[in-house]
Design goal:
The chain is α/β, with parallel strands linked by helices. It has helices spanning 14-23, 45-48, 55-58, 74-82, 97-109, 142-149, 165-176, 202-205, 216-227, 272-281, 285-288, 310-313, 316-319, 345-361; strands at 4-9, 29-36, 69-70, 88-91, 114-116, 156-158, 181-190, 230-231, 236-237, 243-250, 257-265, 299-301, 322-329, 335-341. The longest helix has 17 residues, at 345-361. It binds NADP nicotinamide-adenine-dinucleotide phosphate. Residues 10-16, 36-37, 39-40, 71-72, 92-95, 117-119, 162, 193-194, 196-197, 343-344, 347-348 line the site of NADP nicotinamide-adenine-dinucleotide phosphate.
Length: 366
């Protein structure tokens, strides 16, 4: 069977380029359509990304020769879909939230499913916000989403914020094992690549930490509740707990978001030994289905006192695993740990590809 042809909206950006790199040898998907702003439209992809981030890696092969389309021209993507060049799109657009919201909906209305990294639709009630290991069942809302809007083939699925899996995956492993969490305090140390291209000025970043990332603390506190939410006839109803307080900081690291967590269990409290066992043995549907982008172990446990670290741990298992260490009791709550994951892979393009693999196995692209 041939590969499924896919398109990338925002293909020239930080996340878009990561999609191109990760899909280069993907067994199921092949990039046949790239789109970005009118500034890049009309250029060969190789030319449009020249001088940006890691163009050498992303410009090998046929993708470099693709002509970049204007992502605002949905009809051109729909025509590509009809010719068999674009069965669905990954959206890595960075524009106004309202613009992205209506543009992604226009794609879905034109019959093109959208797997999005943008935040625009994260709080749309019937749009699932997927971390494939945590809430794959939320994809079951797609038929309702289609029915409500009169879409036949199109739909929208989103990924949460890029730092969330660093603490959500261990948090969910504990919840799944029967240890509900009541309160959680998280301090994130977020890489500069999370700010997109061209990112934060080097003079602000070198020898410095910026204790503010616009909108990030709200996302870090609220998005986990939708991910842990329940499906209803109207949409996804968010969970009431855990209550989360977040401090989000930009640090001079190229890739890899770190999360320092203190949490309080709502009921029974597992021992430290039990917690380590739960995290190290955690697997979920992507591992059962052996999806190509899935890490063998979603959580890698490190016992060294000084791990995880971005340089040594962000690329663990295709940069798709969350590395957890420093598991210890907490003086104020019950448990402390440090989680780390790659923000543009697990937290963006790799997570989007894993979601698409999950949706393919559920038959949503036919
Ligand atoms: P980026 O590097 O700034 O790239 C933005 C992309 O959007 C570029 O391809 C750009 O095209 C395109 N674009 C900008 N204005 C446009 C317009 N008016 N019409 C059509 N296309 C337009 O951003 P990024 O970091 O890759 O982030 C992309 C999305 O993913 C954002 O929504 C971001 O919030 C989300 N995200 C990012 C990360 C991360 O770690 N960086 C993680 C998770 C989610 P041109 O090159 O032609 O300007």
């Amino acid at each position: 069977m041939g590969k499924i042809p896919v398109g990338i909206l925002g293909a020239t950006g930080m996340v878009g380029q990561q999609y191109i790199a990760l899909l280069e040898n993907h067994p199921w998907f092949e990039v046949r359509y790239v789109a970005a702003s009118p500034r890049s439209a009309g250029k060969a992809y190789r030319e449009a990304v020249a001088g940006r981030w890691h163009p050498v890696k992303t410009c090998s092969g046929a993708v470099g020769d693709l002509i970049v389309e204007d992502a605002n021209e949905v009809s051109r993507t729909a025509a590509a879909g009809k010719r068999g060049d674009c069965a669905f799109v990954f959206s890595a657009l960075e524009m106004g939230k309202d613009e992205i919201r209506s543009l992604e909906a226009a794609y879905a209305a034109a019959g093109i499913p959208v797997i999005s990294n943008a935040s625009a639709h994260r709080w749309t009630e019937d749009v699932p916000m997927l971390i494939a290991e945590i809430n794959p069942h939320h994809a079951d809302i797609i038929p309702l989403q289609r029915a409500k809007r009169g879409w036949d083939r199109g739909f929208i699925v989103v990924k949460p914020n890029c730092s969330i899996q660093s603490y959500m995956t261990p948090l969910y492993a504990l919840i799944k094992a029967g240890y509900g969490v009541g309160r959680l305090l998280v301090t994130t140390l977020q890489a500069v690549s999370g700010a997109g291209y061209p990112g934060v000025p080097s003079l602000d970043m070198i020898d410095n930490v910026i204790p503010y990332i616009g909108g990030e603390e709200e996302k870090s506190e609220e998005e986990p509740l939708k991910i842990l939410g329940t499906l209803t006839e109207r949409g996804i109803e968010k969970a009431a707990t855990p209550r989360i307080s977040a401090h989000c900081n930009r640090v001079p690291v190229s890739d890899g978001h770190t999360a320092c967590v203190s949490l309080e269990f709502a009921g029974p409290k597992p021992s430290i030994g039990e917690i380590k066992e739960i995290l190290a043995s955690f697997t979920s549907l992507p591992q059962e289905l052996d999806l190509p982008m899935a890490p063998k172990r979603p959580i890698i446990l490190r016992e060294e006192l000084d791990r995880p670290q971005p340089r040594t741990d962000r690329d663990a298992d295709k940069a798709m695993a969350v590395t957890v260490g420093r598991i210890r009791p907490c003086n104020l709550f019950d448990l402390r740990f440090t989680g780390l994951s790659h923000n543009t892979v697990r937290g963006a393009a790799g997570g989007g590809i894993l979601n698409a693999e999950l949706l393919k196995t559920k038959g949503y692209f036919s």
